[in-house]
Amino acid sequence: MREGRICLAHADSLKMLRFARADPMLMLAPASDRVLREIEGSVVAETILSVLPNDVFEPAAQPVQLRFDDASSRSRCSLVRSCSALDRLPTAGYLDVLSTEGDPFCVNGSSVEHVVVEAPGLALASAANELCELVSRGRLSRESALIRLVGLAMELCGIYARDPCAPLVGPVAYELETISSVHESMELLDELKGRRGVSLARRAIKYANDGSGSVMETFWYGVFCLPPRLGGSNLPRPLQNAPLEWSLDVADVVSHERMRPDFYWSQYNTACEHQGGDHAREAALAEDSRRARDYELCGIHYLPLTKRDAQNEGAVRDILSQLFRIISLYEGPAFKRKAARILNDSDVRAARRVLLGQLLPPLARWGE
Description:
By secondary structure, this protein is an alpha/beta fold. Helices cover 41% and strands 14% of the residues. It contains 13 helices and twelve strands. The mean pLDDT is 91.
């Protein structure tokens, strides 16, 4: 039986990673040493065209980025853009795309082809490398590059995936299995020290959080928790999409056995939820009311968020003002001074506009 390997790199690896996460017939597992170090990694045009999903890749129009062990093993195929150094990268930096039964991505008679993609930590380093190039050309500010990278880190350590071909405007896949955590990605980046882009990627992952459930949740996390110079409010990290168990004294009166708020700060006894979809329908309104009552019965401050709350910087500022009023009940006088600066300082407001532009495309703010 012939066994081969396609090791995707950079932006094309991220495309395949997003495709695999969203496809219910696929899963991602740590690549083994055997797959990365022993299986033949040479490719020919026929393999590229027959194995990679043609609704994601168009090699004839845009050559596919692949990684090989060294310069001598790089492909000369016209459908491939080759890069090397696979033999110098850690095995933990790669995931194997498998069927849900655990089989390699492509099994065709006596031929088996493994498709390998960069794990989140390495994917962040690759993205950071490309963003650093944009910064060096003056096409992107360093702050904007860092914000974009935090957004990617939140996706890769979260439970959603953007569209592989149109990440800014395409459909998003939700309620996915996690493939990494902030801690795991940081450990991998520690192994990659010295490579171009890793320093920026390490800064981004330090700001990120586990468990984000959507593009909108990632945006609000940025508003809440990034430093003010990046448009955030420097609040403590909340739990995201973690289940809350009710106390026994309210268990018989609440409508839900448990809640899983988008954001929850235990130290402020406060939950925030983004109400996506159509919440004008009667059934959705009834559910929103039940959730609000449950939070109230349990003594938890509840702040719902809607798409309108992210339409512009002024709307975002209004939500922050409400949240800060709740938090001020638990913090000392110094917090009120900090809140006033975050709300009113012209530089912070300008940074908030940049954050809005980098993490939320217009379609997410105003589209249906």
